[in-house]
Description:
The protein has a domain at 23-160: Helix Hairpins (Orthogonal Bundle). Helices cover 70% and strands 11% of the residues. The chain is rod-shaped and about 130 Å long. With 199 residues, the chain is mostly helical. The chain has a two-stranded antiparallel ribbon with strand order 1-2. The chain contains two helices and two strands, in the order H-E-E-H.
Amino acid sequence: MPAIKFTKNELKKQKDALKRFERYLPTLQLKKQQLQMVIRTVEQQEREKRTAREEVRGRITSWIELFGEDANIGSLVKISKLETEAGNIAGVDIPVFKSLVYEDIAYDLFETPLWLDAGLVAFKSLIALDEELAILQKQVELLNQELRITSQRVNLFEKVKIPETKDNIRKIRIYLGDQQTAAVVRGKIAKKKVVEKAS
């Protein structure tokens, strides 16, 4: 902590700093609350997507197991492009899932099982859910990182800067008050000496 000067200019500087800290603190607290709320919302969306993914996976496995045929669905589905948008929440840039674009891969309808078309649709929806989940996890990660930084700033202002500045103001006021009292006492002593010399 830098040493403070016991002057009126330093007193004004400390008062201005205190006003600034007290003005920024509510903004930081509001940002912290907003981030916490958004994180809860994104986590809820993530839980819903996980549930949807498990439902799709359950539906796929129940009817794929009925058919013992070997169809390599993974080789027929390739992502050509993952489209995302940039979103901004409380000053944090986050990716937002938009869509998935798949390559068109031709396959012979006569040599593949009948259920392949339905399997491809289900497999594509499963991949899309996985990609959405990955982006939601990235959002939570970025938002948690910003929440940690914002919480540190709130704590810095609440527990360090504001109390430290108030203490500095108190010390400067006491010092200046003591100096003023000492000046008055010195003035009275000097006046008394002048009166005694004059008489």
